[in-house]
Amino acid sequence: MEVVVTRRGKRRSEEARAGSPRAPYLDRHVGPLPILSEEGLQIIEANADCILAETGMEFRDDPEILQIFAEAGCDVDGERVRFASGFCRKIIQATAPSQFTQHARNPENTVRIGGSASVFCPSWGPPFVHDLDMGRRYATYDDFTNLVKLHQTIPWLHHSGGVVCEPVDLPANKRHLDMLYAHIRWSDRPFMGAFLGAERAGHAIDMARILFGEAYVAENPVLYCVSNTNAPLVMDSHMSGALKTYARAGQPVACTPWTLAGAMSPSTVAGTLAQVLAEALASLTLVQLVNPGAPCLMGSFASTMSMQSGAPTFGTPEAGQMILAAGQLARRLGVPLHSVGTLSASKLPDAQSQQEATWGLMMALFAGVNVINHATGWLEGGLVTGFEKTMIDADLCGKMMRFFAGIDLSENAQAMAAIAATGPGQHFLGSEHTQANFLSALFRPDLPDNNSFEQWQAAGSLDMAQRANALWKSRLDTYEDPGLDPAIDDALKDYIAQRKLEVADADYF
């Protein structure tokens, strides 16, 4: 598929402050970092084939999928499907694209997915939000729209995301419509569709057609779906229904096994990797059987658990190993990779949250992940989106973008004339080269305090979370509405109102 080369964004004040131009995605020039040898990769791949051939995978409550697999020559026994060795890889490699573009309503924000590109998306799914003013609380639609607007102001995020929090003040069977509208109305970046079931996925596609035009959507990816397995080795009809709907519409599907080693997969890294690859292979094969050539990604959400308490753990050495290996496996398969970033089990935006977040995001980028979900905001094992955590993670994303973009070797960056002009024993503070480059040569994060103790004390002795509290409020105050064609806006509102009327009051929640 054609790769769209996009132009630089508009936030010049952001660029000057951060010391790096805003880009619609990160083009990595560092890594990826291999962790498995050729022999190790072959072992994991052979074990995944063995799982698919001997144990198989269940596709529950979806007779159509069973028929699709049966017609393709797979062994279907009840809801269990078994695959001949090498079958899935052959199907995927024959038609699945190695990269594609997801278009935004603002073409400057269109993203490339695959190759050396990495796209950062915000937190997804938490029913709670947290900030220093009101603490932990159930999320509302006001929180949802504020997060969409806040993400729009962060130059290091490339994607508006999906369920940035669950607005529990809205009916569960209707709020996907309001969430989709918020992304369309308050952001001009790419966004995700609704994931649960064919009907909600269909609503997302309908709304995308209103926004972009039916013919455009028929030819271009404009949405993004994540289809999670129910590990071990199950996909339910909610996930498969959405998968089929998006695949048939030519919209990307990230086929993502969701595992915690020791509970949903073996407690060992090698065993978890084989299961993750098996589930991803079966799911990706389904996408290609439904619509050969439909864009898809291998996904991996593989972390660990405390063997003492049973609670999920993040930022562990084993989680790092699993994502590095998943990157190698996806590259050998020839499809882009979807995974996760700044995960943390911490309840607050504290040292634990940032130690775990830094490890997770760095490992994802060393793995060559193409779409990084949960790049900002994640707390409490995914139960909470934190406003302060979002801003702290945003600085981390900016640092990672600068590092993984590689070293500038332009004539200006080599600075040979400046070295010659300054000479031995002098300083560069007043040099022409420093004056020309001081805003952009070094990354400038928003939140760290580099002042003297006395200056820090005079400013209120604030820690980073307190500074982040002030920053997210300032960003919302200065948020710039991207606007939306009134005719499209009205059409979207009419569509949403009609869909809501179709749901009976008895089924409201």
UniProtKB/TrEMBL annotation:
One of its GO terms (molecular function) is methyltransferase activity. Its EC number is 2.1.1.-. It comes from the Bacteria. Residues 1-25 are annotated as: Disordered. The keyword Iron does not apply. GO terms for biological process: methanogenesis; methylation. The keyword Methyltransferase applies. It holds the Pfam family MTTB. Keywords: Methyltransferase, Transferase. InterPro entries: MttB-like_sf, MTTB_MeTrfase. Belongs to the trimethylamine methyltransferase family. This is Methyltransferase.
